[in-house]
Amino acid sequence: MTEAKLNLAGQDITDCCKKVIPGQTDDLLLSKLQALVPDYPIHLALTGDEWYKLGGVVDMNGSRIANDIIEWAERTYLECGQNLQTLIDHALELQLIATRQTGKTLYIVVQTGDKAEDFTLIEIDKTHEVSDRMLIDETNPPADLEELIDPIQPFCIESYGFGHSRYTYRRKTDVRLFMEVINERHPGEHPVQRFMDDWNRSSAGQKHRMSDDWIIRPYRHTGRFGEQIVNVEIVNTHKNHLPHLEDFAGKKGSSLSNVLSRFDRQAGYPFAWFFYMLKGKLVSTHSAESVYKDISGDFAYLPERDEAVLRDWISTPYNV
């Protein structure tokens, strides 16, 4: 497959998410997305860690009072003449319950070409609303509206769900175009770009698609002066258990080659150990140093393309 432009609008993905019947599986979502771009393979690369955010308000019977607790609290506070105690009494009388949204982000890859950077990453939030706490703790009422909305010590209750999971489109990232922007703003070669370049010229890039085991994920962080900086990270998505490779003392030649080959077989592609080392995951940098000593001496068990990548790393080390 050669790289091609993917014509997939965010609104198309949003509509697709809305058409998935609540409670149905991720596989159905993937099949609907695949139908939007039948010429490009799609797969679920990663399901992120669970997170939560404020939800809405329900009564003791589970009847919906409001979808958004912040909007409800601010509006009802005004309706109560900006008298917090009146609002508290109202909530206690109705025995109102605050909910929360629990969610996980699905990272979906659309492969558009053969190179490491030839894919689009779609992020979709899968959320489920559950009961969280009594809106008011009668023994410890809130001192202000902010504490009512999000108390430090909530009056928690047994959690139960409302309805089924829902999907919401977050964003999509054309990795090739995104990296062009990152590279323009980054002094020198960005480590993530170098990782992909090394992948493309190594044995790994000849045998395996990078996005099957690694994804490029944008993120924001705050700079020294409070400015918002957009950057990018590499995330490993390999699902099988792989061994840690740390102690290489005394290993060289066929002994060392066998250890690395075994790791590569378990990972599913050649030269995998090198890329796990770059991520600082599972493989110690001592592996590269030991292999370099071997290939600089009497041993030659790496393909030429991988030798070139390793020699460049020894000359100018980097990690991601």
Report on the structure:
- By secondary structure, the chain is of the alpha+beta class.
- It has 2 domains: 10-173, no CATH class; 186-320, no CATH class.
- The protein contains 12 helices and 9 strands.
- The strands form 2 sheets. Strands 1, 2, 3, 4, 5, 6 and 7 form a 7-stranded antiparallel sheet that branches.
- It is elongated and about 85 Å long.
- The model has no long low-confidence stretch (mean pLDDT 91).
Short description:
This protein is α+β, with helices and mostly antiparallel strands and 320 residues long.
How do the strands and helices of this protein lay out in sequence?
Layout: H1 10-19, H2 26-36, E1 42-47, E2 51-58, E3 64-66, H3 69-79, H4 84-94, E4 97-111, E5 119-134, H5 145-149, E6 155-156, E7 161-174, H6 175-185, H7 191-201, H8 203-207, E8 214-222, E9 228-236, H9 253-267, H10 272-278, H11 286-295, H12 304-315
Antiparallel strand pairs: 1-4, 2-3, 2-4, 4-5, 5-6, 5-7, 8-9
Helix pairs in contact: 1-2, 11-12
Mean pLDDT over the full residue set? 91
Note the run of SSEs as H and E.
HHEEEHHEEHEEHHHEEHHHH
Percent range for helical residues?
25-40%
What is the global morphology?
A: elongated
Could you list some keywords that capture this structure?
alpha+beta; 26% strand; seven-stranded antiparallel β-sheet; two-stranded antiparallel ribbon; 2 domains; 320 residues
